[in-house]
Specification:
about 210 residues, mainly beta, five-stranded mixed beta sheet
Length: about 210
């Protein structure tokens, strides 16, 4: 091989070794971040996908049960109330005795008119098996305006006999079979349920 041909071959080999492959595909703009000098730097870009929030539906909102029973909290008092009706002359001064027989049980109450002063307390005394309260009326009034009654029986009896004497003599009496009404102050199906009744015993014929 001549010297000239050898030199040409060496030069061609050196030129091939210095060839640089340049890609014409620019980096994706979304993945480039440029500095103040315009130089680009590849970056990772996060993608956020919004998440839809389900709105509450009518079926998910709790509602009151229209069939549920609502009871108020009113109270009531059961029992029997018996009015003592005097003669036209009224009650007057004297010692009174009230004998009660209710469903086979007995109680006797005693009191006097005129009543003691109001600050002296209740003056009627009762002994026996029947729960009865005697109301005193007019402890702050003159004798002509004083009285007693009604009698209140805590348990409603089915049969009741009352005899009232004044200074040992008949004053008023009567035998009653009370009629009762059922009271439910908070409505049907709600407690409490009370039985209430009224009656009279009279010195003369009851009106």
């Amino acid at each position: 091989m001549s010297a000239t041909r050898a030199l040409l071959l060496a030069a061609a080999t050196a030129a091939a070794a210095c060839t640089v492959n340049v890609s014409n595909t620019p980096p994706a703009e979304d993945n480039m971040q440029r500095d103040d000098n315009g130089n680009g730097q590849a970056t990772a870009k996060a993608t956020v996908t919004p998440t839809a929030t389900a709105a509450p539906t009518a079926s998910s909102v709790p509602t009151a049960d229209p069939t549920a029973k609502v009871c108020t909290k009113m109270g009531c008092m059961g029992g029997l109330t018996v009015e003592v009706v005097p003669a036209k002359t009224g009650f007057g001064k004297g010692s009174y005795k009230i004998d009660v027989v209710a469903d086979g049980k007995k109680t006797t109450c005693e009191l006097k008119l005129p009543l003691p002063a109001c600050d002296k307390g209740h003056s009627t005394t009762c002994k026996g098996d029947v729960g009865v309260d005697v109301k005193e009326v007019g402890c702050d009034k003159p004798l002509a305006e004083q009285a007693f009654g009604p009698l209140r029986f805590r348990e409603p009896p089915t049969e009741l006999k009352i005899t009232v004497t004044k200074d040992g003599k008949r004053f008023a009496d009567g035998t009653v079979s009370p009629a009762y009404k059922t009271v439910q102050p908070n409505g049907p199906g709600c407690e409490p349920t009370c039985k209430q009744g009224e009656a009279k015993v009279c010195a003369d014929k009851c009106p």
